[in-house]
């Protein structure tokens, strides 16, 4: 299984790079946190970066043998989470088993990821939301390319319609808080 950290977002609402952001109560930045959680479950972790944070993330993970920083592949650059997932599928000519985690879920636990890892074709659901950027599925570069060529860049559509992923329900929605502003209430955790 390959872990994919989606760290290439523009963080417009956040106002600074979410991947490189370190919460006041955490010892490492969000990208490292995600890698640390995926590493016990995955043979390799790919950090999907953007042009701005690639140098910092490449330096940060330079000594990690099972971590590689990747960037979007043409012709699907800067099209959201699917660009990062497409870049991950370009690393192999074979169907790839992917455990995907967006960088802005700092409280998702290894236990949650383990549940996803143990179910084929699934994504996380809480009582109030579906979390398509926390998912596990096997796909190929060709399958994803064919979908993207339809000009549909919605991760939800790819996960539910193409991959036929099922939701796995988690009761504790607090673990799935997705921070879009640094001023959010981090102190609650």
TrEMBL record:
Keyword Signal part of the UniProt annotation: no
Keywords recorded for this protein, A-Z: Cytoplasm, GTP-binding, Magnesium, Metal-binding, Molybdenum cofactor biosynthesis, Nucleotide-binding, Transferase
BP GO annotations: Mo-molybdopterin cofactor biosynthetic process
Pfam families: NTP_transf_3
UniProt cross-references to CDD domains, sorted A to Z: MobA
Domain MobA-like NTP transferase: start-end pairs: 3-161
Domain of life from the UniProt record: Bacteria
Gene Ontology molecular function, alphabetical: GTP binding; metal ion binding; nucleotidyltransferase activity
Keyword Nucleotide-binding among UniProt keywords: yes
The protein, known as: Molybdopterin-guanine dinucleotide biosynthesis protein MobA
Organism whose genome encodes this protein: Secundilactobacillus mixtipabuli
Taxonomic lineage from the root: Bacteria, Bacillati, Bacillota, Bacilli, Lactobacillales
């Amino acid at each position: 299984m390959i872990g994919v950290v989606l760290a290439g977002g523009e963080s417009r609402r956040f106002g600074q790079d979410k991947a490189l952001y370190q919460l006041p109560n955490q010892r490492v930045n969000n990208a490292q946190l995600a890698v640390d959680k995926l590493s016990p479950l995955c043979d390799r972790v790919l950090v999907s970066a953007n042009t701005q944070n690639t140098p910092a993330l490449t330096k940060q993970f330079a000594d990690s043998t099972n971590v590689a920083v990747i960037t979007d592949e043409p012709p699907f650059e800067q099209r959201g989470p699917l660009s990062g997932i497409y870049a991950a599928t370009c690393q192999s000519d074979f169907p790839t088993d992917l455990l995907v985690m967006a960088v802005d879920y700092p409280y998702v636990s290894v236990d949650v990821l383990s549940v996803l890892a143990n179910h084929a074709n699934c994504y996380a659901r809480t009582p109030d939301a579906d979390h398509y950027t926390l998912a596990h599925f096997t796909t190929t570069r060709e399958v994803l390319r064919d979908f993207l060529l339809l000009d549909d860049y919605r991760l939800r559509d790819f996960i539910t319609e193409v991959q036929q992923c099922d939701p796995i329900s988690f009761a504790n929605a607090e673990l799935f808080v997705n921070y879009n502003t640094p001023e959010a209430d981090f102190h609650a955790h």
